[in-house]
Write a structure and sequence with these properties.
Layout (H helix, E strand, L loop, with lengths): L5 H4 L10 H4 L12 H8 L9 H5 L6 H9 L3 H9 L5 H7 L3 H4 L16 H15 L14 E5 L3 H12 L3 E5 L8 H4 L9 H13 L2 E3 L10 H7 L2 E4 L5 E2 L12 E3 H13 L13 E5 L3 H13 L3 E6 L25 H4 L3 E4 L1 E8 L5 E12 L2 E4 L5 E4 L2 E4 L3 E3 L5 H5 L22 E3 L2 H4 L4 H20 L17
Parallel strand pairs: 1-2, 1-4, 2-3, 4-16, 6-14, 7-8, 7-14, 8-9
Antiparallel strand pairs: 5-15, 10-11, 11-12, 11-13
Helix pairs in contact: 3-5, 3-9, 5-6, 5-9, 6-9, 7-9, 10-19, 14-15
Bound molecules: flavin-adenine dinucleotide and iron/sulfur cluster.
Length: 487
């Protein structure tokens, strides 16, 4: 039974972010600690709704009102059990998820003020951090072994979630990762200030102790052939992500100083890992333009400020969204509205409704400016506003306009998998690709998405692989390949 008056007596509250001038001098996470009694008060705001719309927002089907009430009652150990029942990695989602659950919380129903939702994500991260520090997160190796083997290609959140589920179900699981470290975008895409990598390493330690095997620096399709994968393992799960970055083929693109975001972010993360003294692509002392207004762009923004950029502009072709939920995206759907993450608070200017005409170079072949034009949407297409051309000086341009899909050359071509109309690896309703015994999950099948979807897909695909190997499965299937976000 929840606190019947919690939401009336307590306002939504989140932990403070560390002061900007201090935090941009280091790479640590931006949030201050939050006292346990304050998080219990936040959990006590949950109304335990008859129809908990938060469940519909979350693809994992997290049992949100249950663990909210357990936290309110100070039963943190029971809370982590309920949280782990649906989410392998709450320490990732609790830090990184944009929280569609909060967008669909009944307490955020007021369109004039959507800020009342229960602080679900904060409760989540406090539960798992407490569980780790209390020693409640222990390895759960299987009690019975199936004798069947599975290769998981890719160690992002989808591959890791699937591997953990399948290992615990008793299968011999090997994760093949072509990078030198595990974690996919959690490792080399997302910067340390959003999630310190110690959280990833701690979870990988649990997985190793449970019996999951990992092979890093192993490019499936090259170091292990497609044929070898199919013959050496009883099933293969493809979780290689959607790694092909969207480029901008405007005149001048060949100039030096213009990079895809995923050329820029990984070496910066490698400096933090101690692999490099300094990054070969640094924003230090430069005027930086980031093209693309999403998560990746915000990560470039926070990274550029920490590297010492003199000025940063972030460009977005779409018009500025409204401050509050737009009427076209009513509660409980994911709202179209202005979002300002911690990186935006640290500086930089956002410019909306502009398009890049061309990149301008200096005598040495290095970018010196970007030529822009205002655009407006007419009949669903962007049209240039004549007479609005202008130049924005810069020495570094970062392209953060999303990803077009999975890399086809190599493994996918050699396996002969088919692709869907959006260019992603096609799966049937049981997560199987057009090649028998080969399954696909995460961004590789869904296209560029979110960590919470990758984990949900990894869990559901694991159930399908388990059923393929043994004839049945008791593993949960939170989503189907065709499941869409609440809209
Ligand atoms: C910069 C950036 C920031 C983001 N921030 C957020 C955020 O804050 N919150 C959020 O929810 N989402 C965020 N996202 C999206 C999120 O990271 C992805 O949706 C998620 O990581 C997808 O998981 P995945 O397991 O499908 O693939 P990935 O994380 O991309 O992992 C795929 C892995 O497969 C490996 N691989 C590929 N091919 C092979 C092969 N042939 N052999 C061996 N290994 C292979 C790759 O090296 C990679 O390690 C962000 C994305 C980017 C790019
Ligand atoms: S919708 Fe909000 S208030 Fe209702 S159960 Fe979910 S978290 Fe609690």
């Amino acid at each position: 039974m929840p606190d019947p008056k919690g939401f009336l007596t307590t306002n939504r509250e989140l932990p403070q972010r560390r002061p900007v001038d201090i935090r941009i001098q280091d790479w640590r996470e931006v949030y201050e600690d939050f006292a346990p009694e304050r998080i219990r008060a936040q959990a006590g705001r949950c109304m335990d709704c008859g129809i908990p719309f938060c469940h519909h927002g979350c693809p994992l089907g997290n049992l949100i009102p249950e663990w909210n009430d357990l936290v309110r009652r100070d039963d943190w150990q029971a809370a982590i059990e309920r949280l782990h029942a649906t989410n392998n990695f709450p320490e990732f989602t609790g830090r990184l998820c944009p929280a569609p659950c909060e967008a669909s919380c009944v307490l955020g129903i007021n369109p004039e003020d959507t800020s009342g939702a229960v602080a679900i994500k904060q409760v989540e991260v406090e539960i798992i951090d407490r569980a780790f520090s209390e020693g409640w997160v222990t390895p759960q190796p299987p009690t019975v072994r199936s004798g069947r083997s599975v290769a998981v290609v890719g160690s992002g959140p989808a591959g890791l979630a699937a591997a953990q589920q399948l290992t615990r179900a008793g299968h011999d699981v090997t994760v093949l990762e072509r990078a030198d470290r595990l974690g996919g975008l959690l490792r080399y895409g997302i910067p340390e200030f959003k999630m310190e990598k110690r959280h990833l390493d701690r979870r990988l330690g649990q997985m190793r102790a449970e019996g999951t095997r990992f092979r890093t620096s192993c490019d499936a399709g090259a170091d292990v052939s497609a044929e070898e994968l199919r013959t050496s393992y009883d099933a293969v799960l493809l979780a290689g992500g959607a790694t092909v970055g969207r480029d901008l083929p405007a005149p001048g693109r060949e100039l030096a100083g213009i990079h895809l975001a995923m050329e820029y972010l990984p070496p910066s993360n490698r400096v933090r890992e101690g692999d490099l003294e300094s990054t070969p692509i640094s924003a230090d002392g430069k005027r930086v333009v980031i093209i693309g207004g999403g998560d990746t762009g915000a990560d470039c923004l926070g990274t550029a400020h920490r590297q010492g950029a003199t000025v940063v502009h972030q460009l977005e072709i779409l018009p500025a969204p409204p401050e509050q939920r737009d009427g076209s995206t009513p509660w409980p759907t994911w709202p179209l509205m202005m979002r300002a993450g911690s990186a935006h608070e640290e500086g930089g200017e956002r410019i909306f409704a502009v398009n890049t005409e061309r990149f301008l170079g200096d005598a040495t072949g290095h970018v010196r400016a970007i030529a822009l034009v205002d655009v407006t949407m007419v009949g669903g297409r962007f049209e240039k506003v004549e007479g609005t051309e202008w130049e924005l000086p810069c020495e570094l341009v970062l392209l953060a306009m999303g990803f077009t899909g999975a890399e086809r050359e190599g493994l996918l071509t050699d396996l002969g998998v088919e692709f869907d109309s959006r260019g992603n690896v096609a799966r049937d309703a049981g997560w199987q690709t057009s090649v028998p015994g080969v399954f696909a999950a995460g961004d590789m099948g869904r296209g560029q998405s979110l960590i919470v979807w990758a984990i949900a897909e990894g869990r559901a695909a694991a159930a399908a692989v388990d059923a393929h190997l043994t004839g049945h499965s008791a593993l949960p299937r939170p989503v189907a390949p065709a499941t869409l976000a609440l809209r």
